[in-house]
User: Fold these one by one.
Assistant:
Number 1:
Amino acid sequence: MTDLRDAAMNSKAWPFEEARRLLKRYEKAPPEKGHVLFETGYGPSGLPHIGTFGEVARTTMIRTAFEVISDIPTRLICFSDDMDGMRKVPENVPNQAMLRENLQRPLTSVPDPFGEYDSFGDHNNAMLRRFLDTFGFAYEFYSATEFYKSGQFDEVLKRATERYDDLMAVMLKSLREERQQTYSIFLPIHPETGRVLYVPMKHVDAVNHTVTFDDEDGREWTLPVTGGNVKLQWKPDFGARWAALDVDFEMYGKDHSTNTPIYDRICEILGGRKPEHFTYELFLDENGEKISKSKGNGLTIDEWLTYASTESLSYFMFQKPKTAKRMWWDVIPKAVDEYHQQLRAFPDQDLAAQLANPVWHIHGGNPPASHMVVPFAMLLNLASVTGAEDKAGLWGFIRRYAPDATPETHPDLDQAAAFAVRYFRDFVAPTRTFRAPDEKERAAMQDLAARLSAWDGGLDGEELQSLVFAVGKEHGFEPLRDWFKALYEVLLGASQGPRFGGFIALYGVAETVSLIEGALARG
């Protein structure tokens, strides 16, 4: 353990860098509450967003790293802002008319459009928890509705009435003049309509801890700020939650970064200590635009897991969190293969390299062995040329290539074979286009087919790759990648593909000859 801790204290992997920064927070004395508290926030205004998973995954990686370098106990809270009013109807859910009738009501007061849970907020919370549980995260779930109504937030809310002017001064600086006229940090819940009201306060009573306001019809109301009668605007709520829970660490997207000084100051005014922050870059969709929960323009967790393993998604989340990344269907195969490359490298690495390896952080320091003797990209191409309708259609080729492999001994390969068939059917097959070879390419492919027909070297992928390489070189392809690109486009209907020698070894020499001859006859 000493060697591990020493190596972790010097590791440049970003989770260890963040863990060391957090440890400095308590270099003078341990936390009075007896633990370090990590928090992630979730806005359940739409179906669970894959970025929310990313926050929990990355926070867990930092938490694990912290537990290596410190003996201070830790907790992780996943906090759902489910008391927020539903400001707009998500485009990707049913019963739109019913939802429109419930606009501005807290999400936990909006009926579930799917008819499965007590409310829309409960539905989305359940979706989040189900997926977090799928990944085995250790977390505690907090509902804002319960937090406000149970009294856990009461002391901080009372303090907010007592320090109302100071809190308003912080917020008003960040608002346009027109917005300043009607703004209040408090949002009352209308006693009759149940809607979240965005109205100015006529009076804030710091002694009785009540607020007085007029509703949209001009009727005056006075409500206690405790017991779920009033909630805080989202920016003050952020900082107030930090103060109420004594949060030590929270990460959030770059779109929140300009608000960090506001969150921090709100926390401090309410008697808390601002937490350590980590700001990550946002995910982008196919067109390089920010992914939106309400638009549904990005991949969902369900969608990713339809085509690849949970670990591949964790790998994608680990990579360069401070760099904006395009998250679309075509990143999935790359993530799968890179994840297994790192798994294969791990056993032969020294401790420092292992701590820098993404799989250490994905698996909490204990990564499994990889049995992916065939890359995912290769499985996709195999599915393409064989027309396989299920994984059994691929296993005949896999067994010939790797005789010792079975679905039982290589479960990750078996799972990947099923994913590859599904991914090919849904994304590759509809878009692939085969082209005819030009005369130079035709001559080279005829040569390759002839040499393969005379091949007696077995199914060694590297030797076959050398053969393909030599054919391209002898036929004057410069750069040689043009030769391989021609093979992919003419034979596979794609602009890129696997190491072609490895593909021949997997698909079979005679089968590849037939593939080439068929393509040349077609063209």
Note: The radius of gyration is 29 Å.
Number 2:
Amino acid sequence: MQKLNFMVCATALILGAVACQDDPNTGNAGQDDTEELGEEWYSGGKLGTAFNATSFAYEQPTPAVENSGMSQAFKYGEYLFEKDFNENEYGAFHGLGPVMVRRGCFYCHPNYGHGKRQTEYKADKHGNGYLLVVTDDTDTYLSSLTGMPQTLSTLPFKAPIDESKIKIEWREYSDEWGNTFPDGEKYSLIYPDVTIPQSAYYVPLQVTKNGVITEVPFSNVKVRLESTIGVYGTGLLDAISDEDLKAEYAKQEGVGVNLNPAIFAGGNWTSLYGNTTHPKRFTYALSRGPLQDAAGANAIWNITNVTRSNRRSHYITSTYADVSSKDAEVQADFYRYYPKENKTGDVQKDIYNYLMSNSLDVEMSDEEYADFMIWHRGLAVPAARDLDDADVIQGKKLFTELGCSYCHRPSWTTGEDNFTDPSGFFADNDPRLPRYPNQKIWPYSDMVQHRLNMENDIRTGWCRTTPLWGRGLSELVTGASDRLHDCRARNVIEAIMWHGNMQSDARKSIEKFRTLSKADRDAIVKFIDAI
């Protein structure tokens, strides 16, 4: 069993965590110290909050995990998140390839937080949370590439995109106010411009619309960056009931807020997750539904192409398989990679069938995957800090008065957390996973998509409101305070001012923010950092 291969390391992690909790200098307040705190200090509710404000703040298990005796499984899952997978056929963390986005999860989520701004695209660089978004001029993903394009490969295969040719340039942007507040204080705005030459693509450039494959002229190809967000607290967001989520959309539609018609219109969902009755709630693009089949459950398979019992295929396109199968260099070394007993002698056919197989060997055990999801669903939210500070109190007041709290809705109360798994791996309300029923949580997000109309904007222009909880600890935890979908904002002020475009849904709030005194602007920043 692979679990035994990292038992010693996991035990060391547990002992390290205990040592941190016992250290009075870590800032990890015990329960006895927090009994008198108001409810908003408990950002993740009583079952989902960890009182740890150290560099380990994003890594803590929820009280629900600890209360349910899941701590050891949580640590095993954490270990799967933190370690690289490899190309071995057997042993711990085997099964990497044949192509991959990353060799492990930790590259994209440094210390479990938001990815960091990059000046060059190197998949193996720690903190590079960027995923490439490659589309045609109508924002349709290129179907010849995977939705998250791969830039790494295992020999003899070749990556769909040669990352050595990817170029990231950071361009200065001047808004209509000349990046200057009325009192004279200046700020800076930058955004990424990403270019990939045609020679970097291993596959033809194609889109599929209505079942028809069409070649895309290179001049029509668009490339953007999207960075990963922190993974803590996602179990709590999953526990918000579908009914309450729908009520939020209906409320906003009722007062004339523009909503993405591809998600909600006329008082009802226009798109649900897959073949389920669940709304979409995860990722910037709202592409995922329940957490048990959402970004993390998907990524532990498709980022590394490590198979499991309910994902026995590669995250790969038929176009890539076709190109690879006809590549003479791949053909020459394929049988060194591929089990010889399975070859037919037709190397082109064997390559294609291997890449497109739906019955590959299982590389991650069911027990390991269950542990991973215990960890994923069990990550706590850091408690809020300094809420009794006078500046933070003033900042919260202004945050509300300016209308920021409309999209960054302060709190939700979770439902019964009767979760499901559209993939069928976990049973409904599976007792192996932690649950968070009836918790008042403070994510500061309405979970709805809005538009900021930024320069070189996110794909489609619609972006789910990112939760603000815990983000004030980002620099301490990850070494950077980068914000927004592509890390263009290096601090809170820049993030706020990127909301100010004339066509932005937040325009009125930014007009008011600009007129505040520097002390009041700083108070809002201090409040955002405190929650």
Note: The longest strand covers residues 167-173.
Number 3:
Amino acid sequence: MGMPQEADSFEFAGYLGVLRRRWWVVLVLACVGIVAAGAYIAGSPKAYTAVATVNVTATGINQSQGGAVAGGRTSNAVNLDTESQIVKSSTVAAIAARNLHSPLTPTALLGNVSVAVPANSSILQISCQAKSPQQAVACANAFAAGYLQNRSATAAATTNSQLKTVRNQLSGLEKSTTRLTLQIRSLPLNSPQRASAQSQLQSDSSQLRSLANQAASLSAQAAASSGGSIISKATPPSTPSSPKKKIILPGGLLAGLLIGLIIAFAWDKRDTRIKDARNLGQFGEPTLLTVSGKELEREPLASPRSAAGLEFTELARSLTAGRVRDDQLLMVAGASPGPSVTVTAANLAVALARTHSAVILVCPAGQGTAELLGLPESRVLDVRGAAELAAGEVSLDELALQPAGFPGLRVLVLAADLHDLPPAQARRLAGQLRSSADYAVIQGPAEVTGPDSFALAEYCGAALLTVEISSTKRADIEDSIRRLTRLGTSVVGLAVLPRLRLPHGTSQSAGNAPTGSVRLRQAGTGAVPPAPAPAKDEQDNSATQALHVDVADGHSGN
């Protein structure tokens, strides 16, 4: 059965964790956004905008037509919203194109023109955009002049039309008054027709005076029908108005950041590697140990008083107080290849040795465990040695190494060629481990092809599974738990370590693990002389320099 999948928790700390792991994605795409915006600014054609300012005045027609529109933005006698639309009319554009001698059509010219109406003013700001400052100036001034020309011509035409109508009415009234005057003179004084003619003459005379005044007013309007003036001609702009650097550059940066964040979160969501100890709740196993990179940065073999040393001591106490107390054998297996299982096994064995008189660490050769404890792999248990051990020809005491500074700890190194350990030999070895030590820590190989320490797994009472942050995948943990369960070993918990890396020169990185037994047998005795213990200074230096921690920042490939 597969383990239930649980989505990563995206609380506030989860978001910060994604940014911490994928910050370089966001940074790169933000830089790409800025570069793209800069390339667009550099490659796009420049455009310049010039502005001409026109003061619009009433022509007299506006008063007669009602002036401002009810509910309009402006309350002046002239509705500037209407006038701004007149500026962009085809009639004004035709006048401007004719004055500019431009090859562009009036419609094309209108695409470059915009009109703004400042609040509480009678001003029109006519803007024109062109490829050069001079063209922009000529265009803006041409539209301003064309608008005033059209406005004046329209006002004059309207006034002249009204004046013509009034003059025709005056001519008709003058003829009527002349006719009525002659008729009155020819009628008797007491004639009813004379009285009627006199009344009609008075009415016509009154209308004649009113029309005469109206004609005088229209004549005055026709003489002053300019409708406005240019109060500020357009001047050549010093900088291009398009492309807008202050908008495009921040826009490119924000677009890059947004795309970077989307990609970073999508990438992180698809990444199945364990990113934090909080992602381990889905496996149903408790997290018994969590060590940060800072705690192991200087001392991979943690000192007893260090933070990491106290964590391993607490781990040892919790394990011996539980199930391992009766079974004595504890398997430390790695969920994925890496030095985390080496560091965990070595530190756990050392922590157990502080509180118990006899502890044996069984580790594969070439994994750096012996070097971490300051031991050369001078004696290993190979295929032949396993057979002799099962036959009783040699003992664990003869094969085990004794690290200096840890009197209660012995180390049994399994040769790299020790594969497919027969069940009888594995059972015999497990029994000797139980009889020779209070507790035995069995380190699983970092690779499937490593020494067959997993043959001892079925004799272990419990297993501790190591997880390497930013390296171990969810499937790795599931497979490891399933494999150990099939061997009859229950996983009691998980140990979470930062991503580790062995330096050049150690067994795991250099690949110099011995391939066979290095047993120096004395002729006829069958005894294996113990390897000389290294000097204390040598042991300390080896212990502190054998391994260093590389805390993953999360941007390695999946």
Note: Residues 26 and 262 are 9 Å apart (CA to CA).
